[in-house]
Every structure is written in structure tokens, then in C-alpha cells.
UniProtKB/TrEMBL annotation:
PANTHER family per record: ADENYLOSUCCINATE LYASE
Pfam families xref list: Lyase_1
Keyword Zinc: no
Membrane-spanning parts: none
Top-level lineage group: Bacteria
GO cellular component: cytosol
Protein name: Putative adenylosuccinate lyase
Record-level GO BP terms: 'de novo' AMP biosynthetic process
Keywords, ordered alphabetically: Lyase
Domain Adenylosuccinate lyase C-terminal: 391-461
Entry GO MF terms: (S)-2-(5-amino-1-(5-phospho-D-ribosyl)imidazole-4-carboxamido) succinate lyase (fumarate-forming) activity; N6-(1,2-dicarboxyethyl)AMP AMP-lyase (fumarate-forming) activity
């Protein structure tokens, strides 16, 4: 086959990313390249000959070895050249293969099969192989790196956020444990669905018309054929394998892709100058901007999000390929080929996110500054919240909950008015709370009763140090990391 400079390739997967992710690209190529596609179709044709010989009691180890050796000699270029004459890809492959197998087996090549008995079976073989051999190892690596990070930062205090606003305290580990949980479930589902991919040898309309003419039990022949490839038969076939087996796997790929894109968004936003709580690894020779030497852009996280934007919409064509008129049409013949591109793009994103997590750091001083800056200080004047807000306002929730526990029915309104007073006076929430009649003493007494503080007088300190109010964040972070580490390792 004529070699071509990779920079003449059209898809960035085949030039830009084949260089930056060479090991991953090579591992994907073994399953979803055009060479792999032809090779898998050859394997299917050889498996069919072996099945025929098996039911006829004509298979010997030497003959099986000869068939497999013949299959290994097939050059995709030769098949493509033959297709220029036949204008049919599978007939071209059959013609080339017949000339290479032992002569006595040549009549059995493709016998009883229709093209899609080979194509759909080979596609399932490749997609299961690439999922188990490449996709899942990449995802599991990322999941375990996330578990490491969550365990390391399980106790690191952080301001929780909703709607882009400060909410109540959590920990960095708890925030990332969200993705451990979401991605972990998706990984397990991908593993399950890959194992359910099916093949077929049911003929032109799925009713075994052709094979029923030549063997006593066409379904037995189908089972033997598919077992050679590690597959099982589709429960019902037209000319096609039921499309939902592959569709569900691809949809779960996209679920995982969305989770990773969501993580990428969170990470790049937490690296904003005005937040600065997390930071991607940045090498000594790396350049952030062509004109601003000081820049350290979160470009890896942005790259993951960008890959998601490019490939996520392709799910539409996966759904469209679900529909084929009557027993089969060819409306999926071009679109289905791009499943390989999608799989590669997904894996590139997973790999890039793994490198982000591997080098991800938490700026604990900045995290505490943001948390306590939001809480104010003992003097009642804190550094404030970037973009405005009430210093210590994040502690309004526990104040309201505790006050309500003392029997105050409008506790929420009482605390809301205290936040308004703090805003008007440019003071911290803790300072405003201390000025409000018997509110703090009531709250302090309840905290002492609940064992949250030693004495009621210590209550004010609690509201000045919000890292003490993080619920079960630490426990949840550690338990989720432990749970999914065990599931993934098993």
C-alpha cells in the first residue's frame, strides 16, 4: 500500500492527535482503523468456513491453522483494488480470500451468508474489542486517578457553589467525588453493554433461508460461527443485527463523555484568576499565550470540552442508524463508518482528562481564603467576596436551622434580615448575628445542647470558621472513592 505523509490526512485524529497521543492512537488503530475493519471481516469469513467444516466433521487442527494463516495474508489494498472491479466490498473480499485459502475450502467461503452476516458481526467484534481493550482501560485509569485525588483532598475545605454563587462549605474531595460516582456507574454500564454485542448468520432477511438449504440446524451453524469470534447470535435478525445492542453502548459512551466534559468545565472554571482554587500541571517549557508571557491557561480542560462539542452531536446519527426500511436499506452505510471517529475522539478526551487529573493541584491557601473571605474575620471585617456578597453569608443556613430548632417559627426570616443588616453595615454575617438581641445566645445554647460546641459562648467562633460546617463531605468523599476503587479494581 502506498504510504502517505500524515499531514496530508484530513481528520485531525489522523495527524494532530496521532502524534500527541501516539500510544493511544496505535491501540485504537488495532481495532477501528480501516485495516482492522478489513481484518475483522476476514476473521468472520474464516470463522464461517471453520463452522462449516465443524458441522461436517471435516475440521482438523492443520486445516484450521492453514485457514487462519491465509486470512492473515490479506492486504486491505488488494481488497480495495478488487472492489474497483466488483463495486461490492464483501464480494471483493470473498474473491481475494478464495484465492488464498486451501483449495478444498474455497467453496465454503461466504457459503450461506449475506454481506451483513459478515459486516455486522465484524463490527460487533471490533467494538467489543476496542471497548474492552482500549476504552475501558482508559476510563478505569481516569476513575482511579479521580479516586486518588478525592482521597488526597477529602478534608480540604472549599466553598460550595450553586448558580455560580457561594452556597455552603464542602471539601475539594467531596466536589470531585461527584465525578467518581457518576463516571464509575457509567464505566460499569459500558462494561456490561460491551459484553452484550451480538452477531448473526441468518441470511438476507434473517430467516436462515440459505443455511437451511445446506445444514440440518442453521442456528447451530450460527452459534459455532459466532463462538469463533467470541459472540452470540442476535435474538432476532432481519438482514441486520438488532441495532439497539450497539446503539446502547454508543449512548453510554456519550453519557461518560458528558460526565467528563462536565468535569472539564468545573476544573477550568475553578482555575479562573478570581477563583484560583485548582491548577493544571504546567511544565517549565510550556507557553500559555503567544503574546502574554504570564498566562497559564487551563487549555487541557478546555480541549476536553472542545472534543465533546465536536463529537457529542454525532449521537443524532446513531439514533438515525437505528432505522432501516423493511429488512434492510443502505442508509447507514456511510454514517456507521464514523462510529470509529467518535470512539477515537471519546478516547482522546478520556486520555487528556486523565493527564489533567494526574497533574491537578489544589491551592489550599486560596481555597481557605475564598472560604474565610466569604465568612469574614473575628474583627467583623473580612477580605470580602470577589464580585460582591456578604462576608460570612454562607453561614446563614446553619444559623437558620439552629434557630428554628429552638422553636422560632419564622427563623428563616429572622436570619434573612440579619443578612440584610450585614450587607447594609458592610460587616460580616457573624458580626451582624452577634448584635441581634437573643438570636446568637439561643443558637449557642442549642449548639451546646447538641454537642456542636463546648459552651454557648463558643458559638460565634463556629460562624467565623465555616470549614467546621461541611456536613458529611469528608465521609462521603472517602466512602465513594473506596467504593469505586474496589469496583474498578475488581
Amino acid at each position: 500500500m502506498e504510504a502517505r505523509n500524515i499531514f496530508q490526512n484530513i481528520s485531525p485524529i489522523d495527524h494532530r492527535y496521532s502524534i500527541s497521543e501516539k500510544a493511544l492512537f496505535d491501540s485504537l488503530g488495532a481495532w477501528i482503523s480501516e485495516e482492522a475493519s478489513v481484518s475483522s471481516e476476514v476473521k468472520a469469513e474464516i470463522a464461517l468456513v471453520i463452522a462449516h467444516l465443524t458441522v461436517r466433521d471435516g475440521l482438523t487442527p492443520a486445516l484450521k491453522a492453514a485457514l487462519e494463516a491465509a486470512g492473515a495474508k490479506i492486504d486491505p489494498a488488494e481488497v480495495y483494488a478488487e472492489e474497483e472491479k466488483t463495486r461490492h466490498n464483501i464480494r471483493a473480499l470473498v474473491n481475494v480470500l478464495k484465492a488464498k485459502v486451501p483449495p478444498e475450502t474455497a467453496p465454503l467461503v461466504h457459503l450461506g451468508a449475506t454481506s451483513v452476516d459478515i459486516l455486522d458481526t465484524a463490527l460487533s467484534y471490533r467494538m467489543r474489542g476496542v471497548t474492552e481493550g482500549v476504552v475501558l482501560p482508559q476510563l478505569k485509569k481516569l476513575e482511579l486517578l479521580l479516586c486518588d485525588f478525592v482521597e488526597r483532598e477529602a478534608e480540604t475545605p472549599q466553598v460550595g457553589r450553586t448558580h455560580g454563587q457561594h452556597a455552603v462549605p464542602i471539601t475539594v474531595g467531596f466536589a470531585l467525588a461527584e465525578y467518581v460516582s457518576r463516571l464509575g456507574k457509567s464505566i460499569l454500564e459500558i462494561q456490561r453493554l460491551a459484553g452484550q454485542l451480538k452477531g448473526k448468520l441468518a441470511g438476507a432477511v434473517g430467516a436462515y433461508n440459505a443455511t437451511a438449504m445446506i445444514v440440518r440446524d442453521p442456528e447451530e451453524l450460527e452459534r459455532i460461527y459466532l463462538a469463533e469470534l467470541g459472540l452470540e447470535p442476535s435474538e432476532h435478525s432481519t438482514q441486520l443485527v438488532e441495532p439497539e445492542y450497539l446503539l446502547r453502548l454508543l449512548l453510554e459512551f456519550n453519557v461518560a463523555f458528558g460526565i467528563i466534559a462536565n468535569l472539564a468545565d468545573d476544573l477550568r472554571n475553578l482555575q479562573r484568576t478570581e477563583i484560583g482554587e485548582l491548577k493544571e500541571g504546567f511544565s517549565a517549557d510550556q507557553v500559555g499565550s503567544s503574546t502574554m508571557p504570564q498566562k497559564r491557561n487551563p487549555w487541557n480542560s478546555e480541549h476536553v470540552k472542545s472534543l465533546w462539542k465536536a463529537f457529542m452531536p454525532r449521537v443524532t446519527s446513531f439514533f438515525m442508524d437505528q432505522i432501516s426500511e423493511h429488512q434492510r436499506d443502505l442508509s447507514n452505510s456511510a454514517s456507521q463508518r464514523f462510529v470509529a471517529d467518535y470512539t477515537a475522539g471519546f478516547c482522546m478526551a478520556v486520555s487528556r482528562m486523565a493527564s489533567v487529573i494526574e497533574g491537578l493541584g489544589a491551592d489550599r491557601e486560596r481555597l481557605l481564603y475564598n472560604l474565610r473571605g466569604a465568612a469574614g474575620s473575628e474583627s467583623g471585617k473580612g477580605p470580602g467576596i470577589p464580585g460582591g456578597g456578604i462576608p460570612g453569608g454562607i453561614m446563614a443556613e446553619p444559623a437558620y436551622i439552629l434557630l428554628a430548632e429552638t422553636g422560632v417559627s419564622d427563623a428563616h426570616e429572622v436570619i434573612r434580615k440579619i443578612t440584610l443588616a450585614a450587607e447594609k453595615e458592610h460587616s460580616s454575617f457573624a458580626a451582624a448575628l452577634a448584635k441581634e438581641g437573643d438570636v446568637l445566645p439561643r443558637i449557642g445554647a442549642k449548639m451546646s445542647e447538641l454537642g456542636l460546641v463546648g459552651t454557648a459562648a463558643e458559638a460565634l467562633t463556629f460562624f467565623e470558621k465555616p470549614e467546621r460546617y461541611c456536613g458529611l463531605a469528608v465521609k462521603k468523599a472517602r466512602s465513594l472513592a473506596a467504593k469505586y476503587r474496589k469496583l474498578i479494581n475488581n
